[in-house]
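pasting for ref
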Amino acid sequence: MTAQCTTETRTLFDWTCVKKKAKKFDCVAMKRAGAARIYRKIRGMTIQQQLEFWRQASEELRREQEAAKARKLGGAPRKTKQHVDT
């Protein structure tokens, strides 16, 4: 049983009095899901294969960032999944 939460009874580190809001977005859950997805992709790869995976992923991110920058500056139109060649 917790005491009634008042200014006199609440201390700096007493979190029992804090009202919690329902989360709309859980950053930690998203980070963990992303880490699990990457782990499933690289599980069983050799060190050399992992290095190549990260090199390719970094290069793809660089291209996406450059395209986003060009769009922001009024350059190339945004590509949708339908238009991306795979």
